[in-house]
Amino acid sequence: MSQSKLKQVFSYQSWVHAVSGSAGSVIAMSAFYPLDTVRSRLQLESPERRKALSTWRVLRNLIDEEGFNTLYRGLVPVLESLCISNFVYFYTFHSLKALRAGGSMGQSALGDLLLGSLAGVVNVLSTTPFWVVNTRLKMKGLGQKSRNSHSEVHSNVQYDGLLDGLQYIARTEGVRGLWAGAMPSLMLVINPAMQFMVYEALKRRLTAGGTSKTPSAVAFFSIGAIAKMIATVLTYPLQLVQTKLRHGNGDQSLNLPPDVDTVQMLLIILKRQGVSGLFRGLEAKLLQTVLTAALMFMAYEKIARFVTSLLLSKRTGMGHH
User: Fold this and answer.
1) Of 79 and 263, more confident
2) Residue 196 contacts residue 227 (beta carbons within 8 Å)
3) How many angstroms separate the CA atoms of 155 and 208, rounded?
4) What would you report as the CA-atom Rg of the chain, rounded to the nearest whole angstrom?
5) pLDDT attached to residue 40
6) For 112-147, how does the pLDDT look when each residue is reduced to its tens digit (9 = 90+)?
7) Between 66 and 104, where is the model more confident?
8) 52 pLDDT more than 80
9) Which of 165, 164, 163 is nearest to 136 (CA)?
10) Residue partners of 171: CB distance under 8 A and separation at least 6
């Protein structure tokens, strides 16, 4: 690898994208976190429990039954994990992009899909344990509901934070427990990869024609929303299975075998709950991820532009001395 290529991988630019991406995601998730709580509940609770309820009705139900705080349960570890996860993803994606800049796939949709998938694999392998802890922490309230049943799968979560959780799961379930749900997650790298492919393609379309004018915040918000909507609908059944596997198969209604894998779980849900079972919680997921991704991309573009201009003005300032 040439010195100049190595410089591009460890460039300021990759750091700016990584920091802006993680900051943007934290801002966006903080804004729409209650919708993520609803999505987790709909994916993990028995289908009979909140049958045919809209997202807003489920939000109201949760506040009535468990108090307003339940909507924000597990927020801090989620933000910590998201910060790490998006830093890894954006840094890898933009470093790979810098490496490919001279190649034939530098600015193509296929190139973006491939780079997004590679960045996703690196991200999944390095950050899955954080998300396992998060899913368990967020579902603390679910355990209380299942105490009257004979099984107590992870209902009594023995930890409150990310580091405690990692140590506890490693001690009680071993390494396999920490990487639960990694298989569907690896399949799901196609989700952010598709999202980035559509986003980058729309962004290229927006900035085409040599206009020096930067697209508006609303334009970034809109293309972020479109990109995420397409990616979410296409990969939703896998996301559902991923959440169930991370939770430790705690869905009492399915009576799952302990060592169930991704394909088996998809088939079991399809057989017992039909196609609608595979898309349970999609409305809440779409609301949450589309709004979150749109706000995240908007914040990311604005922060990246601000930090880049700051660095440039510092450099030009230093150059004048």
Assistant:
1) 79
2) yes
3) 53
4) 21
5) 79
6) 889 889 999 999 999 999 988 887 887 765 554 443
7) 66
8) no
9) 165
10) none
d(CA 103, CA 57): 51
Mean pLDDT along residues 94-123: 80
pTM comes to 0.75
165, 246 Cβ separation under 8 angstroms: no
Give the pLDDT score at 302.
Answer: 92
Q: What is the dihedral of CA 217, 221, 227, 228, to 10 degrees?
A: 150
Q: Residue 83 contacts by C-beta under 8 Å, 6 or more apart in sequence?
A: 22, 25, 26
| Tally of CA atoms within 13 A in the half-sphere of 227 that contains its CB | 29
Region of residue 153 (phi > 0: left; psi between -120 and 50: alpha; otherwise: beta): beta
Question: What six digits make up the tokens of 160?
Answer: 């409150």
